Amino acid sequence: MDYLLIQVTNGAIIGIIYALIAVGVTIIFSILKIVNFAHGDLYMLGGYTAYYIVTFLGVPPLGALFLSMAGLFLFGIVLERLFLTPLYSDRTERKDEYGLIVTFGLAFFLRNTALIVFGPFPLRPPSFVPGVVHVGGLAVTNDRIVAGAVGVLLILALLYFMHRTIWGQALDAVSQSRDSAAIVGINPRRFNSLAFGVGAALAAAASALIAPIYSLSPGMGVLPNIQAYVIVILGGMGSVLGSIVAGILLGEAEGLFTAFFPDPTRALAYTNAFGVLVLMIALILRPTGLFGRRHVRME
Amino acid sequence: MRIVRRLLLIGVVAVVGAGMILVPVKTLLGAAEPIKLGWVGPLSPPGGYADGQLMKDAATLAVDEINAKGGVLGRPIQVSYQDTRGLPEEGTAAAERLISQEHVVAIMGEFHSSVFLAEMEVAHKNGIPIVAVDVWANKITAAGYPEVFRVAPCQALIATQWGNWMVAAGFKNVAIIYEKTDGGQSARDVLLPILQAHGVRYDVVGADLNQTDFTAQIERFKTHTPPYDLFHTIYSEAGLYPMVQQAHSAGFAPTARTGISNTGGPATTPTFWKNVGDAGKYLVTEVVGLPKAKWNNITRAFVANFTKRFNSPPTPQAIENYDATYIIVDAIKRAGGTDPKALIAALEKTTWVGGRGKYSFATDHNPDWHYHQFVDAPVNLVQFDKVGQTPDDAPVVWPRSLATVQYTYKRPPQ
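Predict the joint structure of the above. Result:
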């Protein structure tokens, strides 16, 4: 029983981190109608930002997390203004392709710049709270507990923002129909920046939370980027709630697969493949994902 | 007046004449065409770019030293550095670029066996010598290509030491996680028959190189009956750090019951302690260089110069690349030129003494990996007994002939 409990606990914590990354991808997709291939690299950048805030400014890790989120929020807006505005121009004929190429280019640029600026050696920020908590046969590190708890709080804050604030509701309106939103007086362009900024800030939070457990490296965003897309598709393209649920589901599925797959020598190697298998099955049963709604291209 | 004019004319002619003679000579002396070498290795993701950077730094140091002493055959050495990103297709492209565009006379480097296997095919096709620096898969030299030389020990040499150490230390039940790469599989294939022959039980789990979460697997190991007494990791990249940390925080290893070890190199890099902290104490790892007690003047000078220039102590991979650079230059010198066949012949007769001892390359094929392998490449196992310890300062536990302590494995207190 302890074994199952610890695997479920660890799976849930990793799932929450997945959800934080994926929900950012979803918000950006639902507003800008582009798949942001640089999201994994914004995630990486957020972790490094928090690390240097702790190292050079002496800010406690939790404070550094929020400062990093603020920094990446602003950086996301700058990136969106600099590179993505052609998406909103009628002169841009192939908007999907433009978004894809620009975010791909951005991903490579950020990753290689990080290599030069931060160096190639992995870095580990200090723990949020050092130590391990033992409850019966259950042993979980404090860093994992903090990552899970803060992750849940951020997700709840996001849901509150999306459903209970005027800005969140306007964001949702733009995601459903830019033209209709414009008719009721919402400026969709302003919300493009907001969406990209919020997405980048959530990625930063995920990275800062996981860094004491996994360490930071310039290439750390590659795998989470892939997992984020699995989650976004699984949850339903454009659905924030779908991304949260699918993120936690994927974390649990991967953990439990490793824990219980009959051939223990192959379980770990096939963990990521199992995530994709879950996606395939889900899409056969529900082609629009768990909470998907049909989306159109940028109007 | 006429005399003055004549003297002026003679003066001008003399100056112009001297210039016509001296300028070309000076041009020839000052701009001697450099001898171009190629370097391949990972300098960006997804490859092991941290190790690649250290290797590149070491090569740069060696080239600067060689050029400061006048180069070789009166010509400076110039190296074209190619980032292969840990991808075989990038390795092929880099080797082709070096040979067909840069016209290098020899290639050195690489950290990933799978990438080197691709690069050596290009070198073999073009007849250009290539020196493998930190790639361990047996099949590299087992291919029997005359162009391929290796300064690193191969898995047959390394994993045999590991197997013998595990037997000598009395481990009976070993949990192994290995990276699913040519290097990782080669290590596994050499190690398992040794354990089997000595009745040591084991379970082997493969993992992707970019894996960072091992908690579920470690928890699974913890439930095994009878309990494992050693957690052996065959991992050459930064994934080792979260693995060591997670094994420690889960209470699996290192403990009084279960030891921990790593083969592959990441425990010898300067960032190991920054990433694992206390979890790294009691870990056993290999050093593919001379133990500190056996250092020669070249080793000492290299360590001092590298540390001074790059503000960080070198790794065994770094000194391998430093020596590889000198070995190629030594071969060029003895060959009296850069003809590839003459260079290969000269490399075969290498007797150069470097920072890792006296180099020579076997020319027999028995066993197959012997061919052009530095058979006497040093391999020793060290166990960290202090947090923050450098591998050079850690006690040598294996082989016993080089051991600096009585024990073969020191367990943490209960």
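Chain B has three domains: 1-30, 35-153+295-370, 156-287+384-398.
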